[in-house]
Write a structure and sequence with these properties.
Layout (H helix, E strand, L loop, with lengths): L4 H6 L7 E4 L3 E5 L7 E7 L14 H17 L7 E4 L15 E5 L9
Antiparallel strand pairs: 1-2, 2-3, 3-5, 4-5
């Protein structure tokens, strides 16, 4: 199976502006931002989507969310707020089959989002 663009970014095959990384997750600026600040944080383990995660992924999923909050704080969004988004499937807006969390901020996030 071919690597996703996220796997190629993680492997350094495609240059990107890295915001954060550790052994489990990789965060970078979205190339097509939907807000003034739009960062993607992805697990380094390729899980196609949240619906395909398993109990074995429980620690990784918690780590992903905690690190998303950490990244938001480091880039200055903690005081004003931000939105975390995980898309699942075509109708959910998923465009890359590799679980990822969007960190959106820098403006008021209207509701409903869709």
């Amino acid at each position: 199976m071919a690597q996703t663009i996220f796997e190629r970014l993680i492997d350094g095959e495609i240059p990107t502006e890295i915001v954060y990384q550790d052994d489990l997750v990789f965060a970078f600026r979205d190339i097509n931002p939907k807000a003034p600040i739009h960062i993607l944080i992805v697990p380094k383990k390729p899980i196609p989507r949240i619906a395909e995660s398993t109990l074995d992924d429980q620690f990784l999923l918690g780590h992903l969310l905690l690190k998303a909050a950490h990244v938001a704080k480091v880039i200055g969004l903690e005081g004003t707020g931000y939105r975390l988004v995980i898309n699942n499937g075509h109708d959910g807006g998923e465009t890359v089959p590799h679980l990822h969390c969007h960190i959106l901020g820098g403006r008021l996030m209207d509701w409903p989002p869709g």
